Amino acid sequence: MFEMGFVRAAWFLSGPGMDRPICRCAARADDESSRAVAGRVAIGASVVSFASTLTNRLFASGEVVDAHSRADLVCVASGAMLLLYGIANVQIDPREEQTVDLEGEEVSEIQKSDPDGLLGWASRSIIDSIPNVRSVLIYEGGKTVLREGVMGESPAVVPGPILEKALTSEEKTYFARLEILPGRFEFTYLPKGTQAVLIQPLSPTSALILGADKVRPIASVDFGWIQAISQRISQYVG
After folding, report:
1. Closest alpha carbon to 206 in 233, 178, 174
2. Which residues pair with 164 in a beta bridge?
3. Are 197 and 209 in contact (CB under 8 A)?
4. Pfam families attached here (predicted)?
5. Bridge partners (DSSP) listed for residue 206
6. Most buried residue among 9, 33, 217, 219 by CB atoms closer than 10 A?
7. Which has the closest alpha carbon to 126: 6, 216, 217, 32?
8. Three-state SS for 139?
9. The pLDDT of residue 14
10. Helix, strand or coil for residue 5?
11. Residue 132 and residue 126: Cα distance in Å, rounded?
12. Domain covering 97-233 in this structure, CATH number
């Protein structure tokens, strides 16, 4: 994870002009592996706790005093907490979400002066480092200043209630499974079949919009990367 973070940081600091893809698989794998190991250790500790309590009860001689009962109760409670923690962190063969074919056209256009190549660098870095993100748009003050990737029928971002609410609150809005969202039809500028959407406000009038071809495509490590890029381009997009 440290190595992955170092590579991303180096690319971020260098900015435009360093065109190489970044794989965040290592960071994800390390995070999931650590959680799985911690979960297994917790489950093992809970089993030991339950077994020791049962053994203590079976071989206890004479009457069980109150202090002994309280100690057993603490052991049982601790074991239960460890077991719950372990189950929550051990991955039990979840069903892998499948990618879908998006219906749209590949577009690469910038409708804003970009002499330093910052906007182009930002869109490419997101698509290269988060494989399932297929659409990147930047909306600024009623105009669509950037479109990169697979696009939908509408040639421009048409603000709907969801985008307007995100701009007003200036808070990140993430729909990991777009198909269950009643208001998903406002995203006509994204290709048909888009599975997930992220709206990252850059200011009260501008936002970075991402579309993906897979349900739950963005991991925690990706959110940090997107936030770092957003902070950089927000100084240029008002």
Report:
1. 233
2. none
3. yes
4. CCB2_CCB4
5. 140, 203
6. 217
7. 217
8. strand
9. 52
10. helix
11. 10
12. 3.30.450.40
**Residue 204 near residue 167, CB atoms below 8 Å:** yes
- Give pLDDT, residue 166: 96
133: β partners = 212
Residue ranges of domains in the chain: 1-94, 97-233
Q: Nearest-CA neighbor of 171 among 222, 126, 207?
A: 207
The answer, as to whether pTM is greater than 0.90, is no
User: What single letter denotes the amino acid at residue 111?
Assistant: Q
Q: What is the mean pLDDT of each run of 10 residues along the chain (238 residues)?
A: 47 49 49 66 75 70 59 73 71 68 96 91 94 96 96 96 96 94 94 97 96 93 93 87
CB 91 within 8 Å of CB 194: no
- pLDDT of 46 reads 72
Per DSSP bridges, beta strands 133-140 and 206-212 are antiparallel
CA atoms within 13 A on the CB side of 79: 16
Name the nearest CA neighbour of 124 among 113, 136, 140, 112.
Answer: 136
Q: Which two tokens stand for residue 223?
A: 């959110």
DSSP codes, 146-202: EEEEEE-S-SS----HHHHHHHHHT--EEESSGGG-GGGGG-TTSPBT--EEEEEEE
